[in-house]
Each structure stands twice: as C-alpha cells, then as structure tokens.
Amino acid sequence: MTNHDVNLYGTVHGGVIMKFVDDAAGAAAARHCGFNAVTVSIDEIALMVPVRVGDLVHAKAQVNWTGRTSLELGVSVWAERWNEADREPVNVATAYLVFVGVGPDGEPTQVPPVLPETEEDERRFREAEIRREHRLARRRAIESHRADLR
C-alpha cells in the first residue's frame, strides 16, 4: 500500500481494501466461469485490523457456492510489514460477495457448478446457502413492507 491509499489517520482507506476485495473476487469468479462475471452484492465485509502504508497486502478468493447464474465468493485479505520477513501475515479483512455470470449479450448466463471437494469446501458451501436464504428472506420482508405501505 502506498501513501495514495491512506486516510487522515495514516491507515489505508477501507474503500481501497474493498476495491482490492472486489478485484480479487472478480478474478476468481471469471476464472471459475471462463467468462465475465460482475458484482451483484457485497454480502458482508469485515475490516478487522488497520493496514498501513508499506504493508504488503494479498488476498485469497474462493468460490463457495454456485446457483444457476450466480455465485458466492469468500475473500480473505492478509497484510505483512514490508520490513519484517520473520513475522506471520495478519488477516486484516474478510468478505462475501455475490457475482452473476454475464454472457456476450450482457445478460445473466448459466455458470459452471462448484463441486465441494473437502470438508472445508462443504462447510463453505452450506454456509453460503444460509447467507443466500438470509438475503432472499430480507428481500421478501422489505418488499412485503413496501407493499403494506401502498
């Protein structure tokens, strides 16, 4: 991270980390699909530890779940001091994002399924289903509330 990325406190803007998360998830989504995928929502992002100028920052993105045209990705962001090679990287952020596959016509298109291979993959898949159900329930509740106001 450079001095162009910092806020008034001397730490990296949360928005810079959010863009980094979105870029990592977008790359993983496109690689999984073999075609374009676009961000539909950021389900959750937790910024846990400040990132400082000079920190070496890297992300790991993984497809957790796929539906017909959508997919959920989990991203973890890690930072390490540029001048402290013997220190373990610190987990500074985690996020869950939803993407949709996009065909050449710009319309949603079917995405390849994700097939959990390990117990950890299976856990991530099931938890992604829970987050999806919560998103859909929240949407239904808001739509119902708005209909009641009419």
Structural class: alpha+beta
Count every beta strand, where a strand is a DSSP E run of 2 or more residues: 4
Subunit arrangement of the protein: single chain
- Mean of residue pLDDT? 95
**Count of all domains:** 1
Radius of gyration: 18 Å
Largest sheet: 4 strands, antiparallel
**Helix residue percentage:** 25-40%
Helices and strands, in order, run as HEEEEH
CATH class: Alpha Beta
Q: Outline, from the CA principal axes?
A: globular
Low-pLDDT runs: none
Task: Give the full name of the CATH homologous superfamily.
Answer: Hotdog Thioesterase
Strand order in space, largest sheet: 1-4-3-2
CATH architecture: Roll
Measured distance between first and last alpha carbons: 49 Å
Fraction of residues in β-strands: 25-35%
DSSP helical segment count: 2
- CATH topology descriptor: Thiol Ester Dehydrase, Chain A
Describe it:
The protein has 150 residues and is an alpha+beta fold. The protein has one domain: Thiol Ester Dehydrase, Chain A, CATH 3.10.129.10. It has two helices and four strands, in the order αββββα. Strands 1-4-3-2 form a four-stranded antiparallel sheet. The longest helix has 31 residues, at 119-149. The radius of gyration is 18 Å and the shape is globular. The model has no long low-confidence stretch (mean pLDDT 95).
